[in-house]
Amino acid sequence: MESIQAIKQRFGIIGNDPKLNRSIEKAIQVSPTDISVLVTGESGVGKESIPKIIHQLSHRKHGKYIAVNCGAIPEGTIDSELFGHEKGAFTGATSTRSGYFEVANEGTIFLDEVGELPLTTQVRLLRVLENGEFIKVGSSKVQKTNVRIVAATNVNMFEAIKKEKFREDLYYRLSTVEINLPPLRDRKEDIHLLFRKFASDFALKYKMPTVKLTDEAVVLLLKYRWNGNIRQLRNVAEQVSVLEQNRTINANTLQNYLPNTGSNLPAVVNNSKSEGDFSSEREILYKVLFDMKSDLNDLKKLTMELMKKDSDTDIQKDNAHLIQKIYGDEKDEAFEAAVEDLEVLSIPEHTKETSEETLSHLTDKYDFAEEIEEEETLSLHDKELELIKKSLERHGGKRKLAAAELGISERTLYRKIKQFDL
Ligand SMILES: Nc1ncnc2c1ncn2[C@@H]1O[C@H](COP(=O)(O)OP(=O)(O)OP(=O)(O)O)[C@@H](O)[C@H]1O
Ligand SMILES: [Mg+2]
What we know:
This protein has helices at 4-10, 18-30, 49-56, 75-83, 100-103, 119-131, 157-162, 168-174, 188-206, 215-223, 229-243, 251-255, 267-309, 313-318, 320-328, 333-344, 349-394, 399-406, 410-419, and strands spanning 37-40, 65-69, 84-85, 97-98, 108-112, 133-135, 142-144, 148-153, 177-180, 212-213, 248-249.
């Protein structure tokens, strides 16, 4: 008997997974018999190679092998396709035609997607399975055939039976032996092996160097769900081989070819990302406000010094209301209102702690800046008052002389006297 490795090579089956090997072994074992086989497994797992192995290793190998996709044939013509029809059986039936069961006599029929068969066709099929008998559409003559039937399905047959879409007796007839092919995600060892094989096939086909995966990309390849199994893996290998200029494929690049990679990540990653964005956005806002406030303080100090140095009193006089507005009320209402606004922003419960911390940290900083400013203003105020007092004393209360000594106009001095209540 041919070894399992030789069979795999002959039928182009890649992989060393024990479950895959077991399935192939089963196919080899049942091949010399006429037992009906039902091949099960998800879409794209490679079910189609099993009936080929069974046929080729059986005494029927010189007979016909016909694969029928039961899901692809319209309901109205499937009986005629499978069992044939008599001339005039229906409109367009211009001549008698043999069906697959007649043609495949002494051979094998592979009924792919058998779960899709209409119930009426299921009755006809059951009869063939039980005694090899069938009747052409539009005929009353019973014919005999000797056909080996291998069926395949990617749907849950028990559910189909429960929903009365599939006959239970037919199911047991078809599945005397069931060969199940494991999904790709349960064949981790084979995933990279298959990718390398497909990549080298496509490199040859498209005359390009073979793509190679980085270690991280291999990890991603193994972690992926592969709902489309080997068919999907081959498509990904083809797309990457054709579309990527750089022949070394990293995880980021590979991710672009794997749909729903995001949904494979824990949901918490997404949540914490948005929370992080939210609190960092608030921090940026606070920082901008704080920076603006400290810039404003610097500007005030600078203007104050310039005003003091400048003896041109007209500037002060002409801008008196502005000076009053800027220096008169040291509380920055706009800033405080903005901070308040930020505080009342609806903060999700889980971020509240962080934002309150940030807020108190920033307002501490802000208060601190205010203190420094107040201290300095206070000392300036004191010094100014002291200077004016001394100058007035020196000149016997004569404002004109005092103003000249202080380098300010008489009017400014007058205003200062009133302001300081001298
Ligand atoms: N072990 C394997 N090694 C190499 N190629 C494979 C292997 N298994 C499957 N393939 C390839 O993957 C593709 C899908 O396989 P196949 O058509 O047999 O899937 P299926 O199980 O019949 O899926 P569906 O239920 O959708 O019909 C085919 O091109 C097949 O050649
Ligand atoms: Mg198939």
